[in-house]
Design a protein that fits this description.
By secondary structure, the chain is an alpha/beta fold. The chain has two domains: 34 residues; 179 residues, Beta-carbonic Anhydrase, Chain A (3-Layer(aba) Sandwich). It has eleven helices and five strands. A five-stranded mixed β-sheet has the order 2-1-3-4-5, with helices on one face. The radius of gyration is 18 Å and the shape is globular. It binds zinc ion.
Length: 219
């Protein structure tokens, strides 16, 4: 990637912002005094994980509180999660991993030469793996570990039904289904991973689109 291409792209982003800010003043004006987001999303910094996969500006504005880091681990986003739950009182926290995750892949290899910050992060991810040779399993283990940690820390909120922690995987690389790239699957709710138990959860029951309901779990 040349610096010129990057300059061009960033200038395009600024132009987009200027245009969107002009066009959407009515919407944006409704959010000038504060935020009351519905969902906290902890996901990977990977550029193939844009919020645009989940909705447009109208959908996202004021509704999604986001923490992004390499490998989407809860321990790297502790402050985001604590702030989301304790201060913003967000009822749904989503840990969203993805297939072909560079951080997860790097954690399966030798990362001794990386910086201290990267080593710390990759070690955290590596500690979750149950099968280092299975990339999907590693991605899922990493998500499940974060859900488990939050579920433990905020057991009281979960038991009193004021918080739901959801573990998801977005299939960036089409690893689960090559014809459905970037489809999102639910793999964990409040520490529960069993399909039948998940299917009975009120969040899943809340899905009215039958096709989505059928495809919300991995095959
Ligand atoms: Zn990633």
């Amino acid at each position: 990637m040349s610096k010129q291409e990057a300059y061009d792209f960033f200038c395009q982003m600024l132009e987009n912002n200027s245009r969107i800010a002009k066009e959407k003043q009515e919407l944006l004006n409704q959010h000038t005094s504060g935020q009351k987001p519905k969902v906290a999303l902890i996901t990977c910094s990977d550029s193939r994980m844009p919020l645009a996969l989940y909705g447009n500006l109208e959908d996202m504005m004021g509704n999604v509180f986001v923490g992004k880091d390499i490998g989407n681990t809860s321990s790297d986003s502790d402050a985001v999660i604590d702030y989301a739950i304790q201060h913003l009182k967000i009822p749904v926290v989503v840990i969203l991993g993805h297939t072909d995750c560079g951080a997860v892949k790097a954690a399966t290899g030798n990362f001794d030469d990386e910086t201290e910050a990267i080593k710390k992060r990759l070690s955290t991810i590596k500690n979750t793996f149950t099968d280092i040779n299975d990339h999907i399993k590693c991605v899922e283990d990493n998500v499940n570990d974060s859900v488990e940690k939050i579920t433990k820390q905020y057991a009281q909120q979960i038991n009193s039904d004021s918080l739901c922690v959801v573990g998801c995987v977005c299939d960036t690389s089409g690893a689960y289904d090559e014809n459905q790239c970037s489809t999102t699957y639910i793999i964990n709710i409040n520490g529960q991973k069993d399909r039948q138990t998940l299917a009975g959860h009120e969040l899943i029951k809340n899905i009215t689109n039958t096709q989505l309901k059928e495809n919300i779990f991995t095959k």
